[in-house]
């Protein structure tokens, strides 16, 4: 009876405790140090705001033989902040694969190992100003022997179907690269738009400040001139003296 009661208490404690940390109950989408893991799509296209002196990192899963690309561009900055952004890409083993320190850049390489590749965006150049960065990254495949459909592409086909298949893969690759170039052109257009708004705001406020200075200077000059020509009315008791 005591043994059955002990087993019952142990089972009750396990149920109340719940799953252990790191087991099936853990969050599968959380990366190291709370960074975000991305492996649900081959292409990503979005914008982020990097705060002053901040470091934002993302992790993207890739298989060996896949090709990775990253395009980024700084769209706007607050105040008189530096537009440069430090971007680094690391392999799953922690090796530095690419490093760029500029307002815009492109990265492309062939994945040598399977795992999560890290992309970090550092705004250490600015201690006070934040910036908005447009990102476009993902993986793509070239040739008939790469990518997720590698097993299907290795099937034996006759010559006619092989030619059609190769042509379709080449056409798909061309269309994909056209999309990449269009995305980078869209980044440039967005950056030009924000620069135009910034210049328009600068010209408006500077013109208003100059107008205020001109009006104030004219008013002060008028007061000085009036004081130069100030006269007093002479009376019997108050006559001008030599």
TrEMBL record:
It comes from the Eukaryota. One of its GO terms (cellular component) is endoplasmic reticulum-Golgi intermediate compartment membrane. Residues 55-139 form the GOLD domain. Keywords: Endoplasmic reticulum, Membrane, Signal, Transmembrane, Transmembrane helix. It is a single-pass type I membrane protein. It is found in: Endoplasmic reticulum membrane; Endoplasmic reticulum-Golgi intermediate compartment membrane; Golgi apparatus, cis-Golgi network membrane; Membrane. PROSITE patterns: GOLD. The keyword Repressor does not apply. The chain crosses the membrane at residues 205-225. Belongs to the EMP24/GP25L family. This is Transmembrane p24 trafficking protein 6. It comes from Paramormyrops kingsleyae. The lineage of its organism: Eukaryota, Metazoa, Chordata, Craniata, Vertebrata.
């Amino acid at each position: 009876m005591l043994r059955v009661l002990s087993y019952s208490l142990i089972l009750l404690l396990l149920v109340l405790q719940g799953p252990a940390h790191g087991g099936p109950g853990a969050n599968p989408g959380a990366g190291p140090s709370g960074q975000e893991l991305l492996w649900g799509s081959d292409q990503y296209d979005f914008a982020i705001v990097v705060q002053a002196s901040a470091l934002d990192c993302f992790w993207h899963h890739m298989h060996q033989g896949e090709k990775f690309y990253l395009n980024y561009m700084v769209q706007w900055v607050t105040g008189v902040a530096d537009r440069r952004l430090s971007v680094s890409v690391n392999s799953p083993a922690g090796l530095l694969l690419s490093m760029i320190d500029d307002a815009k850049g492109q990265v492309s390489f062939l994945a040598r190992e399977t795992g999560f590749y890290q992309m970090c965006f550092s705004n250490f150049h600015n201690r006070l100003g934040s910036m908005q960065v447009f990102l476009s990254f993902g993986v793509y495949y070239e040739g008939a022997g790469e990518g997720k459909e590698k097993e299907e592409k290795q099937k034996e086909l006759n010559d006619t179907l092989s030619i059609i298949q190769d042509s379709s893969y080449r056409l798909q690759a061309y269309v994909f690269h056209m999309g990449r170039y269009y995305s980078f052109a869209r980044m440039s257009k967005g950056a030009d738009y924000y620069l135009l708004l910034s210049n328009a705001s600068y010209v408006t406020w500077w013109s208003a400040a100059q107008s205020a200075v001109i009006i104030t200077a004219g008013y002060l000059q008028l007061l000085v001139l009036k004081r130069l020509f100030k006269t007093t009315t002479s009376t019997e008791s108050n006559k001008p003296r030599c």
